[in-house]
Amino acid sequence: MSTAMNTEPVVAAWPGLTPRMLRVGVGVESAAEYRRSGGYQNLGDAASLLDEIAQAGVLGRGGAAFPMAVKLATVRAAAAQGLDTVLVANGEEGEPASFKDRWLLRNRPHPVLDGLRLAAAIVNATHAHVYVSDPVAAESVRQAIDELSSEDLRGVAVGVRVVDPGYVAGEETAAVRAINGGPAKPSDKPPRPFEQGVGGLPTLVSNVETLANLPFVHRHGAAAYREVGTDASPGTFLATVTGGGRAAGLYEVPLGVSAAELIAWHGIEADSVHGALMGGYFAGLLDRRVLDITLDYETLRGLGSGLGCGAVSVLTDESPVAVAASVLAYFDRENAGQCGSCFNGTAAMAAAAVALRDGVATADDVERLERWSVVLRGRGACATLDAATNIAASLLAQFPDDVARHLADGRTHSGATEFTTHRPFEVESL
Prior knowledge:
The protein is of the alpha/beta class.
């Protein structure tokens, strides 16, 4: 059984929502079209825009949900001290179950570039990089830049850096390291990019969806931005929904929408839902209680899970044990090979989970997997090891009966052990 999606994703905005990110069914948006919709407006006062972004409560869409205004203010403070600064628009989408960044860059590069020039003005950066692994996205961005004048970009020199795709390649220090001429692998912290990044300069690294939110705030203000979403998670987000034997869906939805409603809208019946893999591969598994939650940062954080990059992969026929084993095996293959704790830890957890899936694990294997999910957390240079521990811990906590049945006979239901795909719920092979 494979959950890879080989058909074109369905793209749609939530019913009744005026989309802010998506532009459905009309091809790649040109600079002229984007200007007619209100794009590339005169900046005005950068400090005032920063204040609006803070009031709007824009949160990072790359996975961590870090307040954008705090990032901007930190690098802006470095510029105020006379330091040159750099901006990186991070579109390297390392999560196989996510498609939103590639879609934006391929189809609507101008909101990203508009957000880039606004952010660059706030932090006083004169150089910026769009960092991607998708060749189609890279070419779309290059063509979009060619449509613009230096005046459009407020004098910011924008380059495009293309790297080979990889789970760790999208981590912020990996992006900085690659742009600096090194491998696209994370580096030790400190220093963090805002302290010492591209060329050794204070650097703002921001996800491309996050940047694409800034023009809306610039045009309409904080109050309008907060008209949808929740108090703690305002605005909309791009959700990549996979599973249920259906083509992947890319949906713009208000933060705080019911997970059950989104899953049903995607065309998956609630009775068939066994659980979900949340936030791409990072935030772990949830059981059927996923149908009782809302999709916002605070709710999922309270459950020990997360929205991450906005990816929701719905488990129907798949055994959660088999899904966890495949994801952990993926981490074993995709880790940077730099940190012994991660290199050895992901391999050990993957081996235990695969043995459990295949019906050859012992109770000691499960005990070790549980112990590793605790003691290995926070030990790597990046969050890959944390992601692996999230998978292991959530499997054991959310699906104890499935784990017990696999210990007994290696299966939860007919066909469970057939799930051995290398990249579960992958939207598109790169």
